[in-house]
Amino acid sequence: MTNKAAILVAGGRGTRMGGPVAKQYLPVAGKPVLMRTLSVFYQVDPSIDLILVLPENDFSYWEELCAEYKFSIPHRLVAGGNSRFQSVRNGLNSLNFETKLVAVHDGVRPFVSQAVIEESFEVADLNGSAIAVISLKDSIRKLTDDGKSFYEERQYFRLVQTPQTFQVEKIKKAFAVTELQQFTDDATVYENQGWQVTLISGNADNIKITTPEDMDYAEYIAAKQMSDR
Ligand SMILES: Nc1ccn([C@@H]2O[C@H](COP(=O)(O)OP(=O)(O)OP(=O)(O)O)[C@@H](O)[C@H]2O)c(=O)n1
Ligand SMILES: C[C@](O)(CO)[C@H](O)COP(=O)(O)O
């Protein structure tokens, strides 16, 4: 039995993407987004307990999709909630008792690198958490409520990705005691307990597929990965 798990959250509806099929099921270079994401974690270590959080109404659709694509990577399905926070909490509640480390990852980030996943488990094992972030390339400005804007030094900011990997005992406690559910990521829930998060470098291709133009970029990244092999 492994002591590592990955919760791939895909319980959303993809309203910013639009379209009749939710973005997590759309094919990129001929393979549905979620199958790509599951495959990366499986390639890192086939013994990772893979938990896929989906809207409960989509379970049978997903099973049909797996049959259609002959997708055989073992994983467990867990029902999502009304918010990302609730979907992650449902995933955490489904962990086996022997699991010591858990990576929480957006199902719609299929281009996370194996190196980032490996490092996130190593660093979380040592420090309690490992949060993938990348530096900003553009300048930034902070907006105020009265319509003004101010310069901010970009060296003090990072863009936050997933995976966000944690020691299970700590992240389960953080989610169990947290009342506020508007947090947009898991690092913030952890930090809300007074624990400092540890940042690691993410990979630039690890985009969160969110809007229609991201699908073009995703096709480009997938083609680049194929030609690099
Ligand atoms: N109730 C929810 C909402 C979101 N997510 C997941 O959290 C990840 C990041 O969320 P986002 O990109 O915002 O996805 P959606 O909520 O589907 O998109 P939108 O906000 O455009 O509706 C996605 O993999 C999404 O499926 C989830 O598991 N459960
Ligand atoms: C978790 C996340 O992907 C980190 O950048 C992000 O906060 C998710 O935000 P969303 O509004 O749920 O897409």
From TrEMBL:
Annotated pathway, please?
Isoprenoid biosynthesis; isopentenyl diphosphate biosynthesis via DXP pathway; isopentenyl diphosphate from 1-deoxy-D-xylulose 5-phosphate: step 2/6
Q: Name one Pfam family in it.
A: IspD
Enzyme superclass (EC): transferase
Q: Which UniProt keywords apply?
A: Isoprene biosynthesis, Nucleotidyltransferase, Transferase
CDD domains registered for this protein in UniProt: CDP-ME_synthetase (cd02516)
Q: What is its EC number?
A: 2.7.7.60
Entry's Gene Ontology BP terms: isopentenyl diphosphate biosynthetic process, methylerythritol 4-phosphate pathway
Q: Which Gene3D superfamilies match?
A: Spore Coat Polysaccharide Biosynthesis Protein SpsA, Chain A
Top-level taxon of the source organism:
Bacteria
Protein name, please?
A: 2-C-methyl-D-erythritol 4-phosphate cytidylyltransferase
**Which species is the source of this protein?**
Algoriphagus aquimarinus
Identify the coding gene. Answer: ispD
